[in-house]
């Protein structure tokens, strides 16, 4: 009995110590030659996951390591960099930020002396909204954010191919999820880092979305001869299924919002729209639908109103 | 024995004994809200007052809230209060010839219980509510119209439409262009629509509303009306600017 109590007590203590250390459970997943992903959970931000809900990747070239996205906090960026440099024995030489959402760039502090590349719209987005994102993240994930501050990208990513340490990397510029969505296609390995243009079994988020542009970007992604697809959120695949799923979800979303506006529904009524069986496996579909209604519905409902007769 | 039994039964049946029941939302401000906005009058928490809002506010300046009161006769007045807002009272709604339902959007300064109380002809308030978590800050920001300076071009402009609903009623949606400044943003005085009437074409008053600062900028209101398709709107803001419009399909 006493031994049992001790076991419980020490377990409790060790759990608390681990929590106090704020260690992200980083497990590098090799997805191709020289190429790894730290796969986040398909959850919303919480004090349990510390914002590790996003896929960040790295390519180990002969000249050093290229990092794609730095996670949601200073702690994440630091732990990511330490892990990479320890396990590969190479230095990180540059960073790409796919877009300006907080789970993708708030780890930049850990890389601030390095070139951090992004599309101009991304850097502008960080400068405009970074502080607001950061304070909201303190609210959502608490102490995981300690000492995190906003570091904007310091280099402009040029569209096109560049060979770096034996990897032919192509930077592609899209929009739709945000105004600046960068994707990286490694022609040497066939890996496509799609950023948040692609979600896999996790509902797409739309705070800065233009669905028409987004769908056009997905068409372009489908034309690339990739062998491995890294979505911004969700499992890595060797097929284009996550692109098809993201496209189907966005088309459905656009359709129900337009129909609701045409039928005179109020926001809460639209938010209660049932999620079709096709998207049963898609995590957070109902809560992301509520968010998307807040983002996208005001413009659609306004289109359905007519000016009243009024004395000038 | 018998008088005692009658007393017990009548207390069970009378709503007054529930007046002290705890707020299901556990609002720290409920008693204050009750005293100030329901004037301390008798109330009961009642599932017939259904309140809808997302559990997490995506935009603290535009939190969608809607309510339906179902199965209560002769609702006189409905009050909406966000307990923890610096300006808690959102609106008062007196449906005369329309259903006691309303959809609107509001500003939240922080996560808060939102209570909706409907007073029936017997003087009893029936209270429903919902909690909304929010990043907050919605009440102390200047309106977009005021900060961009172009509100004067659209002030008081009304747009609207009317739809047939599957249940046989009609839906009237109205948007009123107005900054709805709360007075809590530095240097920007309170400036909001104070009252609004919805009338039929032959001037029958269908509903009256008192609107307060927390209602979102350019208020968007959804009413459940009867079969009418043409309406008049009359209102006034706290600076005396009039709203007068004819709306319809």
Shape of chain A: globular
Backbone CA Rg of chain A = 21 Å
What is the C-level CATH assignment of the domain at 23-239 in chain A? Alpha Beta
Q: What is the name of the CATH architecture of chain B? A: Sandwich
CATH arch. level architecture of the domain at 23-239 in chain A = 4-Layer Sandwich
Count helical runs of chain B: 4
Total domain units of chain B: 1
Number of strands of chain B: 15
Give a quick account of the main beta sheet of chain B: strands, pairing sense, barrel closure: 9 strands, mixed
**Spatial strand arrangement across the major sheet of chain B:** 1-8-7-4-5-12-11-14-15
- The structure class of chain B reads mainly beta
- Compute the CA-based radius of gyration of chain B: 19 Å
* CATH topology value of the domain at 23-239 in chain A: Metallo-beta-lactamase, Chain A
Succession of helices and strands of chain A: HEEEEHEHEHEEEEEHEHHHE
Estimate the helix proportion of chain B, in percent: 10-25%
InterPro entries (chain B): Fuse-rel_SoxYZ, Ig-like_fold, Ig_E-set, SoxY, SoxY_sf, SoxZ_dom
Signal peptide (chain B): 1-19
Protein name (chain B): Sulfur-oxidizing protein SoxY
Keywords (chain B): Signal
